[in-house]
Design brief:
Layout (H helix, E strand, L loop, with lengths): L1 H17 L4 H22 L10 H30 L8 E6 L5 H13 L3 E7 L2 E6 L7 H20 L1
Antiparallel strand pairs: 1-3, 2-3
Length: 162
């Protein structure tokens, strides 16, 4: 029953996004909703579904989006500076970041957020350790680079998903 509710919710969301009720659009939305429910329905109907109804998580998600957009803008300018600088001041390296996140979904979202920020890419995630390739390793102190690479993202993602 929950899968049917999720299917209908996804289809309504699709129609609201596309703002079209043509037969082709309804068919496409139904197919996308069905595929989504078939592959991800088991995650949506688990015991943690109550977390979706907590308004505080949506507040933290909006804050995370603002922080993520700001960090992406800053990183874009930083990478552009390094590329356009005559001596190209880069000091690449792979840093080991210890994560305090509990759920695998939160860790994956953090790794993807770091990868989508210019100048960094998540290389591997082993347990609670994330390895990140960074264009400019400014410090070899783990507390400093851990805060620069994942600190702000991890705080918000933890409040959203854990």
């Amino acid at each position: 029953m929950k899968n049917i509710v999720f299917f209908i919710t996804l289809l309504i969301f699709w129609l609201a996004l596309t703002f079209s009720v043509s037969a082709a659009n309804i068919l496409t939305g139904a197919a996308a909703s069905l595929i989504t429910v078939l592959f991800f329905g088991k995650y949506l109907t688990g015991e943690n579904t109550g977390k979706l109804l907590q308004p505080a998580r949506y507040f933290w998600f909006l804050l995370f989006l603002l922080v993520f957009i700001w960090e992406c803008l800053r990183a874009n300018f930083d990478v552009a500076y390094r590329v356009l600088h005559p001596r190209m001041p880069i000091k690449p390296g792979i840093v080991k970041v210890e994560l305090g996140l509990k759920s695998d979904l939160a860790k994956a979202i953090l790794a993807n957020s770091i990868t989508m920020t210019p100048g960094t890419i998540s290389v591997d995630l082993v347990g609670n350790v994330l390895y990140v390739h960074w264009i400019y390793v400014g410090s070899f102190d783990p507390a400093v680079y851990q805060n620069k690479v994942a600190g702000r993202f991890e705080k918000y993602i933890g409040r959203i998903f854990d």
